[in-house]
Amino acid sequence: MSGSIPAPAALLIDTYSLFFRAHHALPAMNTKSGTPTSALYGFSSVLLKELREQRPYGVVFALDAPQKTFRHEMYAEYKGKRDAVPSALAAQFGRLRELIDAFGVPRFEVPGFEADDILATLAHGLRQRGEPALVLSGDRDLLQLAHGGVRVLFVGARGQTPVTYDEARVFQRFGVPPQRLPEFAALLGDASDNLPGTPGVGPTTAAKWLGAHGSIESLLAHTREVTPVRLRETLAARAAQILRNRKLATLRPDVPLPAGPQCGRLSSDGLLRVRSLFVELEFKSLLPRLDALGERLANAEA
After folding, report:
1. Are residues 259 and 184 in the same domain?
2. Hey, is 154 helix, strand or coil?
């Protein structure tokens, strides 16, 4: 089971995170004509599962724009060590957009920002209105959103059971609350984003420091008091790097989104469009699951 939430929530989907994970989790798949489909299949499978289990009242997709973001302007080496997109995966991007547009719910993609920032903005708005939200992602950066009625359903590697994080579970896992995860990452670094860590500082030390001092500013203002003593000079010397890391790791809740609905309800017409794509992509094993979802939706609409 992937966990549950107290009430139906808006499902905020980290599109590319799930898409990339699906590509790496499944063996190569192709249509009879040779078109690659493994990432599309895996993405669709995960999405159908969560639509069935979570029964969201609204759905929205967030995507990364192709342009560089404000983080690249701040730090040229941001995500600089990521591998190029495999050709078999790149060939599926167009179909991915067709698929998510077929659902007929909002899709947001804002130049200069990452999908993570869009999700943070959507989550912030829902939180402010007292509406529950569930973020579906395979990116741990999103765990900083797991508070105040917003939860994160983290999809791990293939074979791992998805885990639903709320504030208590984040603290249990990392030793800091969700709002402090950017500072936690600032101290440890993040290889996936190419953020350098503080030598000698591991998760236990980072959590202990943040628990004792409450913030990066307070920690850096009291470097002469931290233990172990051997890390005092290192911490002071890395202050600028740590502060920059925190800015890079902190998700923005103020992305300028277009006017209009920020999430949408699934419809029978949308699922029929998805079904046509599934037939074209030869996803025969997914059709019964999609049809069951459509039947449930039709009964609700009746």
Report:
1. no
2. strand
Domain boundary among 249, 268, 283: 249
Q: Bridge-partner residues for 133, per DSSP? A: 10, 150
Measured CA to CA in angstroms, residue 70 lies from 89, 120, 178, 219, 258 at distances of 26, 15, 23, 26, 19
Confidence grade of residue 15 (pLDDT, cut at 50, 70, 90): very high
**Does the N-terminal peptide bond of residue 132 adopt cis geometry, omega within 30 degrees of 0?**
no
Burial zone of 24 (CB within 10 Å; 0-12 exposed, 13-18 middle, 19+ buried): middle
Q: Within a 10 A sphere around the Cβ of 8, how many other Cβ atoms? A: 13
* Secondary structure of 167-194 as H, E, C letters: HHHHHHHHCCCHHHHHHHHHHHCEHHHC
Q: What is the CATH number of the domain that holds 86?
A: 3.40.50.1010
Please state, in angstroms and as integers, the Cα–Cα distance from residue 158 to each residue in 22, 44, 134, 223, 275, following that order. 8, 15, 21, 42, 25
Compute φ and ψ for 293, nearest 5 degrees: -65, -40
Q: Position of tokens 């659902």? A: 103
Read off the DSSP letter of residue 264.
B
pLDDT per position as a tens digit, 33-69: 999 999 999 999 999 999 999 999 999 999 999 888 9
As given in the structure block, the two tokens for residue 230 are 């051997």
Percent of the chain with pLDDT over 70: 97
pTM of the complete model:
0.94
